[in-house]
UniProtKB/TrEMBL annotation, chains A, B:
The keyword Magnesium applies. It is found in: Cytoplasm. This is Phosphoribosyl-AMP cyclohydrolase. The gene is hisI. It comes from Methylomagnum ishizawai. Pathway: Amino-acid biosynthesis; L-histidine biosynthesis; L-histidine from 5-phospho-alpha-D-ribose 1-diphosphate: step 2/9; Amino-acid biosynthesis; L-histidine biosynthesis; L-histidine from 5-phospho-alpha-D-ribose 1-diphosphate: step 3/9.
């Protein structure tokens, strides 16, 4: 039943990085971590479940913000050590900074420039 | 000069994961690791340079296969712990298995199914 989970090469902490990619646009929304249970729940529930390294607990993406990720496809790479999720981002905001996605800084010359707008303030996301 | 490198949150091994995304298609080609020197060289040379954890040395992507990655953009995420490269994949093959990209397995039911063809055999890539 869970042989597919055994094929994943978990790191020393029992985790694997997971990339969430917006299915409709191809944009990379964010990268987070999963443990075995998070990946299994993601497959069962059809919405992204990660492992929060800072809070040391399962984290159903959007559980506070409402910005859940509906999972359309789960992929594994050649080394079995990275997961790729194709998702639909509910609310259009994946990043805790209130931006559409987390990769909002671009290297220009010798500095990182922020090139994506805040769509909703973090305060209003997390106190709603 | 290298203040931008100091803003990167290197992990305990001095590394950061880097996602290579094909600029033209949005496809995620692969994920590899960079140390500080690899990221600096990537920015300087305009082609992807990674850190090989298995060989414990810098690895200019394509140095053996010819499948270099021309880097069009370098991005950093909100937590400063993931790099995103927008690239042009020379030769159209990013994966060492001879496939266009590394995420060629999809979860269908309870097993990983390979859904992408081998474009060129690894033998012919690495002995050419």
């Amino acid at each position: 039943m869970s042989a597919w989970l055994d094929e994943v090469r978990w790191n020393g902490d029992g985790l694997i990085p997971a990339i969430a990619q917006e299915a409709a646009t191809g944009q990379i929304l964010m990268v987070a971590w999963m443990n075995r249970e998070a990946l299994e729940l993601t497959a069962q529930e059809g919405h992204a479940v990660y492992w929060s390294r800072s809070r040391k607990r399962l984290w159903r993406k959007g559980e506070e913000s409402g910005h859940r990720q509906k999972v359309l496809e789960i992929r594994l790479d050649c080394d079995e050590d990275v997961i790729l999720l194709k998702v639909e981002q509910i609310g259009g905001i994946a990043c805790h900074t209130g931006r559409h996605h987390c990769f909002f800084r671009v290297l220009r010359g010798d500095r990182w420039e922020t090139v994506e707008p805040v769509l909703k303030s973090p305060e209003s996301i997390y106190t709603a």
